[in-house]
Every structure is written in C-alpha cells, then in structure tokens.
Amino acid sequence: MKILVINGPNLNMLGIREPGIYGRATYADLCAMISDHAEKTGVEVELYQSNHEGDLVDKILEAYGNADGIVINPGAYTHTSVAILDALKAVAIPAVEVHISDVSAREEFRQISYVRLACIATIAGHGFDGYIEAMDILRERYEG
Ligand code: DQA
C-alpha cells in the first residue's frame, strides 16, 4: 500500500511557527515520525509539502493511479480551497484530513473545511499523532 502525505502552507515552519499552538517539533521531525510509522506498518509513504495551492492540486492529481490513500493537512487552504476539494473528488482516492491544532476551538473562519467534504475522516487537535492515526485509518480500510 502507498500513502501520500500532503502538507500545505506554512507547515514547513513547524517548530518556529506559533509554538504555543503547533509545538516545538519541526517539519523534519514530523517527516521522520511518519516514515518510521510507515516502515513499522509495512506501508510505502511519500511526503510532500508546498505553500502553493496549484502545486497541491497538481500533487493530488498526480496521485491518481499512484497512491492508495492520502493524508492531507491543507493548512489555511482547508478553509478556502474549492480547488483542493475538487482535486480530491476527481481522483477519488480515500483521504483523511488532519489538523495539528483543534480547529473547532479556534477562530470562526477556521470552522469551515471544504476538503472535509471529500475525506473519509477528520482528525484535529491530536498534534503530530493525528497523522499516524490517519495513516492507520487508511491502512485498516485498505487491508479490509
Ligand atoms: C492547521 C489549522 C489551519 O487553520 C491553519 O491555517 C494551519 C494549520 C493545523 O494543522 O492545525 O496552517 O491546518
């Protein structure tokens, strides 16, 4: 099984960016944790991060025929991007939405998620562990 893990804008700044909300661990730490879990569970993983909406769309579309599951934290594009929603719908690959912070307890504008409409589950507020939980949801579903 192959899982594509996509992180959107500003997630490359983890560890520096608002540590009170996102913690002190870095994007490299997150990647190491995901790779380690993939190895332990026998899953192939590809990690991708971009600050650009169109690049995120392109990456999702490229996953068609190449990935069995998508874990996506679209960052701020969660709350604005119909294009990312449509890309997920277009490829119809099972996807899980992840947010490090508990978006439900934050500003009003973070309460809307377009991508959620194309995802089988949403995990928010579990920190980096949310990515691991999302990978497990996709793997369990794939393995039946
Ligand atoms: C985030 C939450 C978003 O509202 C925010 O714009 C992010 C990160 C999270 O992981 O908690 O960039 O997706």
Could you give a quick summary of the protein structure above?
The radius of gyration is 14 Å and the shape is globular. The chain has five helices and five strands.
Any overview of this molecule?
By secondary structure, this protein is an alpha/beta fold. The chain is built from five helices and five strands, in the order βααβαβαββα. It has helices at 19-22, 27-41, 53-62, 82-91, 129-143; strands at residues 2-7, 44-49, 69-73, 95-99, 121-124. It has a five-stranded parallel β-sheet, sandwiched between helices. It is globular, with a radius of gyration of 14 Å. The two termini are 12 Å apart. The model has no long low-confidence stretch (mean pLDDT 98). Bound molecules: 1,3,4-trihydroxy-5-OXO-cyclohexanecarboxylic acid. Residues 10, 73, 75-76, 78, 99-101, 103, 110 line the site of 1,3,4-trihydroxy-5-OXO-cyclohexanecarboxylic acid. 1,3,4-trihydroxy-5-OXO-cyclohexanecarboxylic acid (DQA) binds next to loops.
C-alpha-based Rg, rounded: 14 Å
Largest sheet: 5 strands, parallel
Based on DSSP secondary structure assignment, what is the total number of beta strands?
Answer: 5
3D shape: globular
The fraction of residues assigned to DSSP E strands is 15-25%
Give the number of helices.
5
Ions and ligands: 1,3,4-trihydroxy-5-OXO-cyclohexanecarboxylic acid
Q: Enumerate the strands of the largest sheet in spatial order, edge to edge or round the barrel.
A: 2-1-3-4-5
How confident is the prediction overall: mean pLDDT? 98
| Low-confidence segments | none
Distance between the first and last residues' Cα: 12 Å
Write the H/E string, N to C: EHHEHEHEEH
Specify the structural class. alpha/beta
Helix content: 25-40%
